[in-house]
């Protein structure tokens, strides 16, 4: 894969210049919010923050955090900071609990958003003429339209198939010679499996996919390897990250070196904080990601608490971009559990299990308190009947899983093999933790 | 030469063994021999039944992890030293035994051994040389 950069000036800017630009944009954003946003002007006044008090980037710490609840409480248009005739687009999150969160864009916001997506799409391998199938659901969700505009900006051939209708998706992929797909990692995997199941009729050689531009949910390196193996077309998958509150996709994305997601730092100023205390962490420390959208005007976002846990690496990447890279999201601040003082995310346990054919993908973490100390058990369902012949193989499997998890978490745990289908199934978000410590 | 044996993964919880064997019983399948090995968490139930393929299907349909394995069944004299002589013959050929279980029969002076070894061919040659009676599937299922 060729190493191409969409906007060299911005993406490879020397860090000193970049930080000066960020500071200038931060000041102007605070000034803008004071003058145009009823919501932020009150909040900034209460905290005693004015634009001229921002002398360095670290002064951002005096600005209060913004949360999802703020968006819900001001539903639908309370945080919009321009007259409605300046708004050209509105999106909303699903809002499974309470009010949906509504976001709004001016024409300039739309241009910035497209620019951000264009950069990650090029970093992921797309170019003018690349035939890209967008398999995200179109609608109020920002994913599909975000990628759509960014890909058009670089001159890619956009095929808006939307989600679902797998057979049609595969037919277009074969007939159009689709080069790239935009999808969630799980749908990309599902499509590959569906293609394989029809391989007697349509051999896998008929698919020409070269790039998987994956987002909307995280993927582990193991899952990505599985996806690439399943397609077998030499597809190269990268992750990108964003959320509707921060425009949508476009905040960050991986380059061909896949060593963290490059943040569009001229647009997004990132910090990590301790979720519990709210205190800002040092550079490179792992914590909750807090993002200020420096260029958004329709519905500005100051220090938005994403609830996603990551760390940020400020070293220059092999690809030449000077932009900082965020680590793949390791969990959500509200999913985090503490076991013997160690922060544990179910996703870390999952990453140790994925790709193991001996067990089903379902698992359950059980926490207990024994002799005043926490114990953690991971239950996995044994499905490989070929291991039943030798007792030692089951014990070895147990040990292997135990070691894998210990390597990731740094704490000893117990692994229990259980019968297939004995762990409860969930149709929505799976409940992975059973905490019995206070019983 | 070989007989079919079922291995079933069983969690160590109250009543589980009863539930699994009831599934087999309800299908009218007769158990000829049985052994169970367990740790504190789980066990492997090994069964020789009169209709092994049918049993495998219904246990799988019940969602269990089941495998069907070829094991060796032999008839040995039911007298002091009968087992020791047989196992010595296998041991002398350095064939590792993964697991085995034994039961006596309704016939006079005869016991049966079911064994899973690492090297079937060598074990069978050694058992033949020892004059053991190697049983085929049908004769065991109909015991």
Task: From the structure above, extract its key features.
heterodimer; A: alpha/beta; Rossmann fold; GMP Synthetase, Chain A, domain 3; globular; B: alpha+beta; VC0802-like; seven-stranded antiparallel sheet; 5 helices; 39% strand
The end-to-end span of chain B amounts to 16 Å
Q: How many discrete structural domains of chain B?
A: 2
Biggest β-sheet description of chain B: 7 strands, antiparallel
The total domain count of chain A is 2
In angstroms, what is the radius of gyration of chain B?
Answer: 16 Å
CATH fold annotation of the largest domain in chain A: Rossmann fold
Shape of chain A: globular
Can you identify the CATH superfamily of the largest domain in chain A?
ANL, N-terminal domain
- How many strands appear in the DSSP assignment of chain B? 7
Gross CATH architecture of the largest domain in chain B: 2-Layer Sandwich
Low-confidence stretches of chain A: none
- Residue runs with pLDDT of under 50 for 5 or more positions of chain B: none
Please report the first level of CATH classification, the CATH class of the largest domain in chain A. Answer: Alpha Beta
| Average pLDDT over all residues of chain B | 90
- Class by helix and strand content of chain B? alpha+beta
Could you characterize what this model shows?
The complex is a heterodimer of chains A (about 450) and B (about 140). Helix content of chain A is about 30%, strand content about 25%. Chain A contains eleven helices and 21 strands. Chain A has helices at about 10, 15-35, 40-45, 70-75, 105-125, 140-155, 165-175, 185-195, 220-230, 345-355, 390-410; strands spanning about 85-90, 100-105, 130-135, 155-160, 180-185, 210-215, 235-245, 250-255, 260-265, 270-275, 285-295, 300-310, 310-315, 325, 330, 335-340, 340-345, 360-370, 375-380, 415-420, 435. In chain A, a hairpin with a 2-residue loop joins strand 18 (about 360-370) and strand 19 (about 375-380). In chain A, helix 5 crosses helix 6 (about 140-155). The longest helix of chain B is centred in the first third of the chain and has 11 residues, at about 15-25. In chain B, a hairpin with a 5-residue loop joins strand 5 and strand 6. The interface between A and B is medium-sized, with 18 and 19 residues.
